[in-house]
């Protein structure tokens, strides 16, 4: 499959390369991704002086909230960020996808991606790129003028995650980035040590690459904030049902302390960057504590759905991370019954109320047609749940062991916080209009410096900053409201057809050997 992928990329390059020829290169663009960055945490800490580098960056640039796509999962969100399209076009909906004909779920990889990421577009235009740790970027893309270190998920531990392959020898002790319940099989203190080790390893790479002067474009992602917030929120939050007041101060301040270190790392990268670099700091989503969980299997058992499903030939149901896969429209010839069932499912789910609090667990329940468009719609989950704050959707237990209530206090011993749709974005550098009015809190309360920025807007904005053609199949827009008049005059936005941007290749089914290796993937264990 990799050979086919390489061929597709280079064929696209033969068509695209002339578009970027003969034009003076602009100043470099650097993206720093802070997975899970959340303003409700960061603004108070910036105001109190604990995150001086992030505060200075936002004071000197433009910033605001960045809404994301659904489901709010790192592989989905980051893929929309780097392609500028919705999941219906890029084809990544989860860490895993349903197997064919009832086969076990399969882990997604970059080879499942159906749209070119920005580093491949820029590679075709002749830019020198450096890409590090972007989720859903394994296997690494073959860059003709760049280098890349893949981000999770990985099929196994003993793999080469770099392009060129020789780069792995240069980066030294660089731990793979894993995520999941299995991480909590170690002590919290051991987890924290690993988070800091990974943060420092990635900091060294980013600092060296950004400071080398060899990059026209870079995209670097730090996932330590996401992990520490997932696992350590309950120690920080006295209202959390799993909060233990007797926990050590190290655990209670784990999130705060890691953010201080992340800020120091940010300062190192900003210092290393060329003075004319345009820098974007962003997150893929926000965060909030989760207090209550909805066990979907248990709820389904109390509805009329089991009887309906027992009388129809149905594929196995897969519920994960707030998405439901049933592909109901294919169950009955003509699909009328399947569509009616989906409508009824949405109606009942939206009408649910927590008997303990009276609150609705779901702010919205989407059918896939409500939020996706594109050629991969058939692969999309049938239903996507958008939880209200403090609620979390899980599969619960299998129908053979229905011993849980459909809703209850969070019982996970590891995750204590989860994703919210409002992330962050900040931009600074030549061509970007800095805001001059108000404190950070005042600017944010006024809506920030952007007009409803979405994660799909990052790639179009980068292409506009460097003056390259925007594919007409992008779903995002250029964030022109923060670009200077001179930037818009020097690099007017041009939209046109970019052949090969949306890839048309079959998804390769894994071999039996690969299926076996996937069973040991740590960040899928228990999720």
From TrEMBL:
Domain of life according to the entry: Bacteria
GO molecular function terms listed in the Swiss-Prot or TrEMBL record: hydrolase activity
PANTHER family for the chain: BIS(5'-ADENOSYL)-TRIPHOSPHATASE, ECTONUCLEOTIDE PYROPHOSPHATASE/PHOSPHODIESTERASE
Region span, Disordered: 506-527
Protein name: Phosphodiesterase
């Amino acid at each position: 499959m990799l050979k086919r992928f390489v061929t597709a990329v280079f064929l696209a390059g033969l068509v695209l390369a002339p578009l970027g020829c003969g034009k003076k290169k602009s100043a470099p663009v650097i993206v720093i991704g802070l997975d899970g960055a959340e303003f409700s945490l960061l603004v108070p800490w910036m105001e109190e002086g604990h995150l001086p580098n992030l505060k200075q960056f936002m004071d000197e640039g433009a910033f605001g909230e960045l809404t994301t796509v659904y489901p709010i999962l790192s592989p989905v969100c980051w893929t929309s960020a780097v392609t500028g399209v919705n999941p219906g076009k890029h084809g990544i909906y989860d860490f895993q996808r349903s197997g064919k004909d009832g086969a076990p779920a399969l882990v997604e990889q970059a080879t499942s991606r159906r749209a070119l990421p920005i580093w491949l577009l820029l590679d075709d235009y002749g830019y020198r790129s450096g890409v590090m740790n972007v989720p859903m970027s394994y296997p690494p893309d073959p860059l003709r003028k760049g280098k890349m270190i893949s981000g999770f998920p990985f099929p196994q531990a003993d793999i080469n995650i770099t392009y060129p392959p020789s780069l792995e020898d240069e980066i030294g002790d660089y731990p793979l980035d894993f995520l999941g319940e299995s991480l909590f099989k170690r002590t919290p203190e051991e987890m924290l040590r690993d988070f800091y080790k990974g943060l420092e390893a990635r900091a060294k790479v980013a600092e060296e690459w950004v400071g080398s002067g060899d990059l026209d474009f870079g995209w670097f992602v730090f996932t330590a904030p996401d992990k520490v917030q997932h696992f350590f929120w309950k120690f920080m939050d006295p209202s959390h049902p799993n909060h233990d007041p007797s926990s050590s101060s190290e655990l209670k301040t784990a999130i705060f302390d890691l953010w201080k270190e992340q800020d120091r790392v940010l300062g190192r990268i900003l210092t290393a960057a060329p003075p004319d670099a345009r820098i974007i700091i962003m997150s893929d989503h926000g965060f909030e504590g989760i207090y209550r969980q909805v066990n979907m299997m248990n709820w389904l058992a109390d509805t009329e759905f089991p009887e309906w499903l027992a009388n129809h030939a149905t594929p196995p149901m897969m519920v994960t991370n707030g998405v439901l896969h049933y592909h109901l429209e294919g169950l009955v010839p003509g699909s009328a019954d399947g569509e009616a069932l989906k409508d009824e499912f949405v109606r009942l789910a939206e009408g649910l109320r927590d008997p303990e609090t009276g609150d609705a667990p779901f702010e919205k329940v989407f059918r896939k047609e409500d939020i996706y468009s594109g050629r991969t719609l058939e692969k999309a989950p049938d239903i996507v749940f958008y939880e209200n704050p403090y609620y979390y959707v899980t599969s619960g237990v299998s129908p053979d062991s229905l011993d849980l209530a459909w809703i209850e206090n969070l019982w996970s011993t590891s995750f204590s916080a989860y994703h919210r749709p409002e992330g962050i974005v900040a931009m600074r550098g030549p061509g970007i209009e800095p805001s001059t009015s108000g404190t950070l809190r005042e600017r944010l309360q006024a809506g920030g410096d952007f007009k409803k920025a979405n994660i799909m807007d990052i790639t179009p904005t980068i292409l506009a900053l460097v003056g390259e053609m925007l594919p007409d199949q992008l779903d995002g827009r250029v964030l022109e409201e923060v670009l200077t008049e001179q930037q818009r005059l020097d690099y007017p936005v041009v939209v046109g057809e970019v052949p090969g941007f949306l890839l048309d290749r079959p998804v390769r089914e894994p071999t039996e050997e690969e299926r076996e290796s996937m069973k040991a993937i740590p960040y899928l264990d228990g999720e």
